[in-house]
């Protein structure tokens, strides 16, 4: 039995810090501050964060039959995530993301590999029947998964399994593809501020959160260093940011998702779950990449005086 099944993207992140603002094309070499290869993919980082917080967590995604795929699966297994339901794609190489970090900003370049082929039919029904909650990440990178999501989430909820969705960015910039239908079958929807504005076409984050509440039971919007907001029963709920001096903020939103789900599935109220999530997002910025500095539950609760 699992508390949480995460379905979505997993790939290595190649993180290059101190990138120049003008990229040195013309076969010119530049030296930068540092480089690292870490576990990436919003879904994979969320799964690792949840396992670190003590949730019994399984992950389903597609990787290639290659060294990068083995790196991804090993990294998740080392962090206590059950990856036995993952699909190894024999046609396409594992997805890869290159992240160029410059001060507080990032450029993100992703080769999607087999991610667009992941579908609801890749998830073993036995696994979906053995979890309390299903979380899906990166809607717009995975069109097959996206197409099946409204029906699958509807069926899951009828069986008493709760659902959450972090759309993340839409690289095409179109922000449609039936995402509203998916959100209306989602118990907790977890965009960041820019994504909430793009999803609703509104210019104000509180108004966007309120609009999302017309579709989803509980919209939770991440606002970077300012923390997060949620809208429930006609009421705005705010959690302040937890001060950090970030090494990098890669995956902070995904660690936030893990924190919110750990709080909410653990029976905490929305205010406490939101504060716990903000602590998990903030603490995750202490290290390079998404998973290196993810906190335990005690560490996160201590950071907000709830331990
Ligand atoms: N500079 C920061 N200082 C403190 N906390 C931060 C900082 N950046 C992010 N966080 C924490 O992490 C949470 C999520 O960050 P953010 O709003 O950047 O999400 P995101 O854009 O979805 O991130 P991701 O790039 O992982 O998708 C915030 O709500 C906050 O709690
Ligand atoms: Mg995000």
Summarize this structure briefly.
Helix content is 33%, strand content 24%. It is an alpha/beta fold. It has an eight-stranded mixed β-sheet, with helices on both faces. Strands 3-2-7-8 form a four-stranded mixed β-sheet.
- Spatial order of strands in the largest sheet: 4-1-9-10-11-12-13-14
Radius of gyration: 18 Å
Note the main sheet: 8 strands, mixed
Mean pLDDT: 96
Written description of the protein model:
This protein has 307 residues and is of the alpha/beta class. 33% of the residues lie in helices and 24% in strands. It is built from 10 helices and 14 strands. The strands form 3 sheets. Strands 4-1-9-10-11-12-13-14 form an 8-stranded mixed beta sheet, with helices on both faces. α1 (42-52) crosses α8, α6 packs across α7 (205-213) and α8 (252-265) packs antiparallel against α9. It is globular, with a radius of gyration of 18 Å. The structure holds adenosine-5'-triphosphate and magnesium ion.
For the structure shown, list the relevant keywords:
binds magnesium ion; globular; alpha/beta; binds adenosine-5'-triphosphate
What does the secondary structure layout of this molecule look like, with pairings?
Elements: E1 2-7, E2 11-17, E3 34-40, H1 42-52, E4 57-60, E5 62-64, H2 67-78, E6 87-89, E7 96-102, E8 105-111, H3 125-128, E9 131-137, H4 143-158, E10 162-166, H5 179-183, E11 188-189, H6 193-200, H7 205-213, E12 218-222, E13 228-232, E14 235-239, H8 252-265, H9 270-284, H10 297-303
Parallel strand pairs: 1-4, 1-9, 2-7, 5-6, 9-10, 10-11, 11-12
Antiparallel strand pairs: 2-3, 7-8, 12-13, 13-14
Helix pairs in contact: 1-8, 6-7, 8-9
The protein binds adenosine-5'-triphosphate and magnesium ion.
């Amino acid at each position: 039995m699992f508390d949480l099944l995460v379905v979505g993207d997993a790939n290595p992140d190649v993180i290059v810090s101190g990138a120049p603002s003008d990229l040195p094309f013309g076969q010119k070499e530049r030296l930068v501050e540092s480089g690292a290869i870490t576990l990436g993919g919003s879904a994979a980082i969320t799964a690792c964060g949840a396992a670190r917080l003590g949730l019994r967590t399984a992950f389903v995604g597609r990787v290639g039959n290659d060294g990068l795929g083995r790196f991804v699966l090993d990294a998740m297994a080392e962090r206590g995530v059950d990856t036995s339901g993952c699909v190894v794609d024999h046609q396409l190489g594992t997805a890869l993301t290159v992240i160029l970090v410059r001060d507080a900003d990032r450029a993100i370049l992703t080769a999607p590999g087999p991610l667009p082929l992941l579908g609801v039919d890749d998830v073993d029904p036995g696994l979906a029947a053995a979890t309390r909650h299903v979380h899906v990440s990166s809607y717009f990178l995975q069109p097959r998964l996206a197409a099946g999501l409204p029906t699958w989430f509807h069926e899951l909820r009828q069986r008493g399994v709760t659902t959450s969705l972090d759309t993340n960015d839409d690289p095409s910039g179109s922000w449609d593809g039936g995402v509203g239908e998916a959100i209306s079958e989602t118990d907790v929807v977890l965009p960041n501020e820019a994504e909430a504005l793009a999803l609703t076409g509104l210019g104000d984050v509180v108004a966007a959160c309120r609009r999302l509440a017309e579709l989803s039971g509980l919209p939770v919007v991440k606002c970077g260093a300012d923390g997060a907001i949620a809208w429930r029963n006609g009421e705005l709920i705010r959690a302040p940011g937890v001060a950090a001096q970030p090494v990098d903020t890669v995956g902070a939103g995904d660690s936030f998702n893990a924190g919110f789900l750990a709080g909410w599935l653990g029976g905490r109220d929305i205010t406490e779950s939101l504060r716990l999530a903000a602590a998990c997002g903030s603490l995750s910025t202490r290290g390079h990449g998404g998973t290196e500095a993810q906190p335990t539950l005690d560490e996160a609760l201590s950071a907000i005086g709830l331990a």
